[in-house]
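Sequence in, structure out. Go.
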Amino acid sequence: MNPKKTSDIDIFKNVVSQYQDRLFRFAYIRIGVREVAEDIVQDVLIRLYRAMIEGREIKSYEAYLLRSISNSCIDWQRKKKETIISIEDSEDIPEESEDDIREEFSRISILLDNLPFNQAEAVRLKCYDNLTFKQIAELQDVSEPTAKSRYRHAIWCIKENLNLNKKPKK
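Output:
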């Protein structure tokens, strides 16, 4: 067997073991359907492997994978013409930390439902995926100040919404 191919396989195995759970969570929070999120992650990992075999230079596996998953989720949402699926409509929630994921997904869905997609996605990337604004800017293909602005505006809108909900009704 070619040593280069063996090296690619070993690198690929390490990338999968390192990022697979995070990538699934990343996709699942955006899609809300376990099977679709799993399919998206699998397709992206297959594309990565093919790129590696073809000898394409990938500077950051993490950035490549996150951007590919993000784009695949956006494509899926466009096809389905749904941006967010309520937790009640989602079918199969992962067994591990089910309550945490259910609560997290429900909370983020409620808070982000009324925001423009790019602002909501900036919040998801920052709060759930712990990405830097530089990474968010790269994923959204915008400047870093634009990524920061989207995040700040989204947080301001969420705070305003929460304040409106706390005011006593007359």
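Check: Residues 32 and 89 are 8 Å apart (CA to CA). Helices lie at 3-31, 34-53, 61-80, 98-112, 117-128, 133-140, 144-166.
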